[in-house]
Amino acid sequence: MIMKWLEAERLSVADLLEDLTDAEWQRETLCTGWTMQEMAAHLTTSTRTGWGDVLVGAFRARFDWNRMEDLKARSLAARFTRSELIAQIRSSAASPKRAPMASPIDPLVDFLVHGQDIARPLGRAREMPLEPAQAALDHVMKSPFWGARKRFPDGVLPALPAPDLLMLATGRVLSPPVDNTVGNSNTRSI
Q1: Cys bridge to 146: 23, 44, 90, 140, which one at CB 3.0-4.6 A?
Q2: What's residue 176's pLDDT?
Q3: How many Å apart are CA 58 and CA 21, to the nearest integer?
Q4: Sign of the Cα pseudo-torsion (100, 173, 119, 3, in order)
């Protein structure tokens, strides 16, 4: 089931990226400092990252995970065009390959959340399917990687829909649904 959800989400995010205007493509996502180009580059990495990439990247980033991901996204964004990045996302849509140490559901979490990171600052409504969002939320709440335990140390979540809880659990600040002036969250949670 996870792979069907992941394939659909990858293709949907590729459609969203393809639909952006040139001006929107240059806008910043909810991940502070990343334009749509860097975000698209980041989204290509889940099926293209091996142990060698992680080890070299971690060393270069002084073992800071977020810095490693940032350097990698910026490098890929400079190397590939918009259409090439979107094509890479599409071509790997059904791929079960994932980065080292990632669980089978981690790429789904990435695409669900980053799809919102792209859409929300542009004032675009983007539906997050409920069943995949709930599965992703359950995983994020148990995984030490995503930081949800720090955000909700008692394990009690506010009474919100699963998509909004997923965004909160991964470090996003909820914003009004359509507001083109929405800024960025203060921290990047990749």
Answers
A1: 140
A2: 56
A3: 34
A4: positive
Residues sharing a CB contact under 8 Å with residue 31, sequence separation 6 or more, in sequence order: 38, 39, 114, 117, 184, 185, 188, 189, 190
Measured between alpha carbons, how far is 145 from 109 in angstroms, rounded to an integer? 12
What distance in Å separates the CA atoms of residue 98 and residue 30, rounded to the nearest whole number?
A: 23
What are the backbone angles phi and psi of residue 63, rounded to the nearest 5°? 60, 30
Q: Encoding tokens for residue 72? A: 């990698």
Residues 6+ apart with CB under 8 A from 134: 162
DSSP per-residue codes, 28-47: B-SSTT-BHHHHHHHHTGGG
- Tell me the whole-structure pTM to 2 decimals: 0.88
Tens digit of pLDDT for each residue in 79-126?
A: 999 999 999 999 999 999 999 999 999 999 999 999 999 999 999 999
